[in-house]
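protein under study:
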Amino acid sequence: MRREGSPFTGLGAVFLKEYADHLGSARMRVLEWLVVLSGIGVVAVAIITLRETVTRDQFLFLNLFLYQREDSAVPSLLSLLSILIPLVAIGLGFDAVNSEFNRRTMSRILAQPIYRDALLLGKFLAGLCTLGTGLTALWLLVVGTGLLTMGVPPSGEEVARSLAFLLVAIAFAGVWLAIAMLFSVIFRSAATSALCALGLWLFLTLVWPILVPVLVPMVATPDPLAARFGLLSDSQVEWYLGLSRVSPASLFADASLAVLQPDPNMTRIPTLGMLGQLQGMVRGAALPLNQSLLLAWPQITALIAAVIVVFAITYVIFQRQEVRA
């Protein structure tokens, strides 16, 4: 039996309903205050120190996202967001689909002129727009706080770089939202889907970086000369980069540093993936914006591809599920 009309019939209705539910829910209020209070606390610590270095840094506003005192346990805003963004995305998506089955409303929704395509895509877009709204509000709050307290306006390049970082953060959030929705489709229990999504996040964020250095010598042949000086061979570096970038957090960190750190010769050390791409750079010169975007483009593409792949898997599984009244 062939269906009639566009598969996206009803997409707008699903999107607006889910978007309104997210913005008005008590869960979203808790997540908003968690992100805002944590972000403002981290930025306040950075501003107190950065006010003394106005004349010594060309990209002062970008330091609001990267600065971390060596003698303090307070992380940078980038490190904080790499933890909070997955948690917020999982909090929005772990019961996106299975809640409809548990409330026995799935058959009623699909009885309307709404296809499964529109239902799943509408829920995903609503969650992604909710995350984008929250991250944009946090970005405006950080920039506004910096303007009021530091007294130095950002340059046009700094604004463009911070906007590029905002887009990278939204793509990173989309990966974890898609993963949370995948588990929401696979498991009917909301608690099980939440635990699986959180378990995968903990594994990729905490355990996987520890396993990568152990796995690299097993799959790549070491170079005796490089091993004598405690260095990795070329093949080991390639395997290290490939395995570490399985984690979305690694892709997010690499892309964010490439965008927010125009001068790789600063005290903040670039990641191993960036070092290989910076060969031939003029020492002491900051990268222009277009070169920084080219440097971050492979990681950004990988994040977008991960969103598409995970959502496609979710779509196939959801299409094969039986819906009963």
Notes: The chain has one domain: 11-320. Residues 11-320 form one domain. Residues 116-150 form the longest helix (35 residues). Residues 90 and 180 are 5 Å apart (CA to CA).
